[in-house]
Amino acid sequence: MYSKMEVIVIKQLEERIQSEGRVLGEDILKVDGFLNHQVDPHLMRDMGQAFAERFATSGITKVLTVESSGIAPALMASLALGVPMVFARKHKSLTLTDDLYTAKVYSFTKQVENQISISKHFLDKNDRVLIIDDFLANGQAVTGLLEICQRAGASVGGVGVVIEKRFQRGHELIVDQGIPLLALASIAGFEDGHVVFSHEGE
Ligand code: G4P
Question: DSSP labels for 65-103?
Fold first, then answer.
């Protein structure tokens, strides 16, 4: 069951996907106009509010995501929850010199393996984490973050994603572990280049 606020945000997001999204090939949705390249701050703010309300009583102390496109919705959720946001880095950096938790993330979409890292300074056993990401496809990025949380001894209170492709395996991978999941837009599939939404969570 969605709250009133969630219904409004979901409608807003679905409208943007329908009007601006482009289906590429069999299973990729391009939403560069508001999420993956240009970013709509008002939509991000509203989505952050929806994530924050859903997980308001989950004792969240930190929001985690992976760079780059997860950062905008994660930051807005963390602002609304009043907790810090930490993003896992994909690339080595001159300033990333701390002890790190790492996990390997294989991207089926891009067919590359990335190592993601989070400094041990920013995650520990006292943390309860909300994982936020832009897309949930095969769930590899979320799995990498779950592995890092396990290494840090942190607990996970939930996962929030802007768009899930319900026909890929990420959704099952998360709920089968008993982790609460809020996907704002849930795509059942693509038909003749059009997006078909799944409303099974209503
Ligand atoms: P997974 O984490 O759920 O397994 O995703 P997967 O490996 O299949 O996808 C790898 C990258 O492609 C991820 O971004 C993911 O967000 C993105 N992605 C997956 N499906 C779609 C889609 O239909 N549309 C768009 N626009 N992106 C998709 P990333 O490599 O972390 O990129 P970025 O965050 O640096 O932009």
Answer: EETTTTHHHHHHHHHHHTS-EEEEBSS--TT--S-EEEE
Q: Is 136 in the pocket of ligand 1 (CB under 6 A)?
A: yes
Report CA(172)–ligand 1 centroid distance (Å). 17
- Ligand 1 contact via 37 beta carbon (within 6 Å): no
Which residue's CA lies nearest to atom 10 of ligand 1?
107
Partners of residue 121 on adjacent β-strands: none
Q: What tokens does 111 get?
A: 């067919």
**Residue 68 beta carbon below 6 angstroms from any ligand 1 atom:** yes
pLDDT confidence of residue 97: 77
Per-residue pLDDT reduced to its tens digit, 31-85:
999 999 999 999 999 999 999 999 999 999 999 999 999 999 999 999 999 999 9
Q: Scan for tokens 């409004």, then name that residue.
A: 8
